[in-house]
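Re: the request from the purification team.
They wanted to know what the chain is likely to look like in 3D before they choose a buffer screen. I agreed to run a prediction and write the result into the notebook, where they can find it.
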Amino acid sequence: MKKLLIASAVAGALVAGHASAQMSSSNMAAPQMYVGAGAGSVKNDNREDSWKLYAGYQFDRTWGMEVAYNDLGQYRGADIESWSLAGTGTIPLNESWALMAKLGATSNRSDFAGGGNHTTLLAGVGVSYSFTKNIGVRLEYEDFGKLADTGNDSRGKNVALSVKYGF
């Protein structure tokens, strides 16, 4: 699954670059900062509710950078949280809909004995819908990798719906 997500993120970024090159410069969106918040469901050793806050900068219609805080619920009875930094690639489908991918690094922090911090690869894919130039929603799947630096192979996989505001 990890290889599939990485391949999807890289392929999405490459296709987004090609799609961007095909669009005329008059259709290119101006650079924009954005913030967002969302809620979802994370699968680790069981299902937990999750929530997230994020901020980013969209360099152009295709490329961006994003920092996020994610509360990934509980794992082994302890709270799990994650900070991440990722590059984003977007493929506009029309004026409202777009496909997106992200690839970056995440630091997962757990409070149980032996858990500590674990830095790993973050990969994600999703779809977004823009109501206006500044307001939209995103549905995305993110793989946060191993949640702790223990022998256990429990991974954090999150599906979230969020609201995004650009300024």
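For the purification team: The chain has one domain: 2-22+31-166.
Please add any questions underneath this entry.
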